[in-house]
Amino acid sequence: MTTATTASTATAPNVPADATGPSHLTGPADLADLDEGIRDNPAAHRVLTGDRPTGPLHLGHYFGSLRNRVHLQRLGVEMFLVIPDYQVITDRDVADRLAEHTENLVVDYLATGIDADRATIFTHSSVPALNQLLLPFLSLVSVAELHRNPTVKDEIAHSSQAAVNGLMLTYPVHQAADILFCKADLVPVGKDQLPHLEVARTVARRFHERYPHLDGTPVFPRPRALLSSAPLLLGTDGGKMSKSRGNSVPLAADEDTTARLLKGAKTDADRRITYDPVGRPEVANLLLLAGLCQDRAPEELAEEIGDGGAAALKRTVTEAVNEHLRPIRARRAELAADRGHIRQVLRTGSEHANAIADATLTEVRAVMGSL
Length: 371
Ligand code: ATP
Ligand code: MG
Hints:
mainly alpha
């Protein structure tokens, strides 16, 4: 039996309810500060994050969020990973190959280092209480606020649907329920998620203002986004690397495919390679990628490539990515062969998530005065 199933539902971490710190943490300095606090008392924290089962995970996920998750888990923080399967139909009519994508996400999590015995990995649809939390949460957010959300606007711009559906607008509130049900205080995400995290923080604060707990303790902590040093990795077309935009380098791709995809990445006409994230975002992105793989500064790599041009840059990045991912890809292949194990991980995770969600819902009903 996993630790996840044996963990008590009554052991939600005692995190400061109204964080006095910044709403999100950025950069290695902040992560280092946080590290120290976590090392002292990992049990005081809980992480929730997740990925929609819309396609294979890519380098943006890995460097933007997955590595931080693994790091936090290794520090001893309890980890919840939601696979929001219902939310796939937010920006498309049909959830294509849902079971396959879901299982592949689990394979990627485990291959990159998430320990299934200590993490709770579950699908949104297997935890009905999440949808009950959504109702009071929706009442705490105005329609105008939902319309203003910049990530929602961006997702609408990239949606493949003829008409935007209601889920699109309420997406950040769904996500607030996914985060708050387990009282997570740390959410390792990419930069695109910051507006959504702000909604989760607002919901937690307003819930407390509207339904104060008898003993004064808020039911929900105010979660903080944890950004990595690659909070917005660009895809091969120069836009945000995304599963659904045909511009990603999947973690599971083979080495030749990786080389082909990176060879097609957008760069610019300047032959001399320099690290200038503002003036030359695409070149800077490739340098950052190689730097992350080799644990080196992008400026140093730029210096080394010098006048070699985009072709030399792409060769460097391809080698760095393929080498870094080689052990992960080998482990991935082994894990992918045992679908029974992957499904069992999801079943165990769902059992634990349901127990936690039911306990939280009972608490919510009590403070709201329900029967
Ligand atoms: P989709 O196209 O279906 O929206 P996606 O690639 O945007 O897929 P999500 O499932 O929406 O992936 O995001 C999962 C997590 O990965 C979020 O925390 C998100 O911020 C992070 N993430 C996604 N893309 C990137 C990226 N390019 N750089 C850094 N983080 C990213
Ligand atoms: Mg997305």
